[in-house]
Every structure is written in structure tokens, then in C-alpha cells.
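Figure 2 data, in text form.
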Amino acid sequence: MLISLPALPVLFHDVKWRPMIPQQQNTSEYTGRSQVIGQPGTESWAARALCVAIASDAEERAWHAFLSSLRGAENTFYLPARTKLQTTAAQPTVTAAVAGNRAVTVSSTANVAVGMWATVQQANGHRRLVKVTAIAGSNVGFEPGLTGAPATGVPLVIGDPFGLVRLVQPLAELPTFGESFELQVREAL
């Protein structure tokens, strides 16, 4: 079940994302040459979110309600890719899929830049956090690839992108007034 983050003015000091790209490397003991074998379609994200210190009893209650509702790793939530807006420009509309699930065609690439975070909605409703790696005409390329076909007629979220995540492990204890804390999460596919 999707749980909403607490409705507080500032939630995080910092959010750090790490790509999880399963690979196997085979090295010949005789020649020293190696070969790396990727596992396409298994890429995902892991993240650490450093939460701001709890400044009031109301904030403490909001965080406690959120953390308790997650029920450990059972439920999910949307974690922002950044702690501030990436851009205030208009978000382009996804107009078509591109073969291979690593790109989409958008209405305009004027506000999209290589290196930006973006959230792509898939036809099944899942939203995937991606990193823009290429722009060619009206096509936007990204990593990791989608796990399904992209939805069309919806925005490519570039202003405040996010990823669907779940806790890697529950917190040892609920944070209290004056404490900051860290959430360790992994993308929920």
C-alpha cells in the first residue's frame, strides 16, 4: 500500500541515490582477461534520506504516524529525487514509446537536460525514477530502463521527480523531538 509522506514544510536535509546494477564478472586466471555480463531489466535504485531534526511535538507525531504506517518494508512511499525543485519549467508530455524501454518521445525537450532526474509513468501505473542520459530530437533517453511500456499523454515529471521505495529495514526506534534520522530504502518494483 502507498503511504504519503508527512505534510511538513521540510522533510529532508539530503537524499542520495545509488544505482543497483547486478553484474557478473568472469576473469581468466590464465590470461587475466575479463568479461562482464549484465543482467538487463534487473536494475534498480537504493537511497539514503537524511531527515531534518524533529522540531515540534506535531512533527514528531506526523513522523511516528508515517513510520508506523509503513509497517517495516511492507508498504511503500514516494521519495523525492532531490531536496529542492529541479526546475519550475513546464513538464513535457510523453507522446510515444521508443523501442527498448530506455527512451520516450516527448512533446518538447526544451526544458529537459542530460543529467536531470525524471519520473516516467508506465502503462501499468507504476512510476519509475530515471536519470536522463541522452536527448536526440524529441526522444529522451534514460537509465535504468522501464520495466514495462510507458504511458502516453502523461507528463514526464522533471520538476519534482520521485521514486517509489520501501524501507530496507525498519528503524530500530522511533525518532524523538530534536533528533534527525536516516531512512534507508530500495526501489519498489
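Caption note: The chain has two domains: 1-82+164-189, 86-159.
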